[in-house]
Sequence to fold (319 residues):
Amino acid sequence: MTARLPPLNSLKAFEATARHRSVKKAAAELNVTPAAVSHQIKALEDHLGVQLFRRYNRALELTDGARACLPKLREGFDNLVQAVERLRAYRGAGMLTVSAPPSFAARWLMPRLHRFLAAHAEIDVRVSARVRQAADQGRGAAAERATLDDWMADSDIAILYGRGEYPGFQVEELLPLTVTPICSPKLLADPRHPLVGPEDLRHHMLLHDDTGDLYDGESFWELWLNAAGVSGVDTRRGPHFSHAVLALEAAIEGLGVVVTLPVLAEADMHAARLLTPFALRVSLISAYYLVCSEASATRPAVAAFRQWLLAEAAKEQKA
DNA sequence: ACGCTTACGCCTAGACCACC
DNA sequence: GGTGGTCTAGGCGTAAGCGT
Fold:
């Protein structure tokens, strides 16, 4: 079927050059030198016997023939990408790779996963705890997209903490989020400084879950204290933790009070290791989102996991 | 100085063939 | 069938040249 096709790289070079109207920019995109791109285009013109560009000094113009074939060529590349994605999605039909932030994986997913495994013994689940680097912050949509592409290249489904702006993927909000102070019951009973009202926080160690800085700009402590109308608490003091799970462990040990996501502390609250001393919960702009590619969404294992996850999240919100 | 093309040469992978 | 040598195509880089 492909016997009459010129080399694929020549077509890639042509498409990139036509899109950028520049050999240099196409070369940068393809990670080769401009000479290599020029070679490819020349080879393609020789192969087809058709001139593709009119060359001017420091400028290129597509010929009518080239312009006419470009839409079909792009469509062809799009189809290739989709076909390859579909093939990737089918590696190990009964294997499911789920990427999730470490704290979510440990504190929300793990306590529930046994129910999915019991109902779907034929599916082998691989959970991959992934960290979005703080360096991604502020690098713009392209960097965000590159990180997401990287995650999705080896995951069937991903749970992301963010704002749900992931074009090109199937995205569903899994859990809207709130934050509130969480601490050990021991702190409430502290005879010297009982934790009765938010003002009493000035007498306690503040534990910082730094996850909040990544996507909401403001620290969780600042967010909650502002909403509570409390002043006079120095939010600069206290230890910082890169993951909510670490801050929660510190809280369990009675080190202090952390403002973080109560959804990550349910099991500990149920076991009376932790509690929320104040009723106020402040909603976040960010939420946990369920993300998968169009291609992998059609896989039965992915569909089953997605459905189960959304049902678990719905139960959570009703509770 | 810049963007592009061209000549030349190197490297790699695959096809083909002869030989064991 | 396996191995080794040769040829060819594809891919790319460097250096030089061209025109503005």
Q: What stands out?
A: Chain A is about 45% helix and 20% strand. The beta strands of chain A are 53-56, 59-62, 95-100, 124-129, 157-162, 169-182, 206-209, 240-241, 257-260, 282-293.
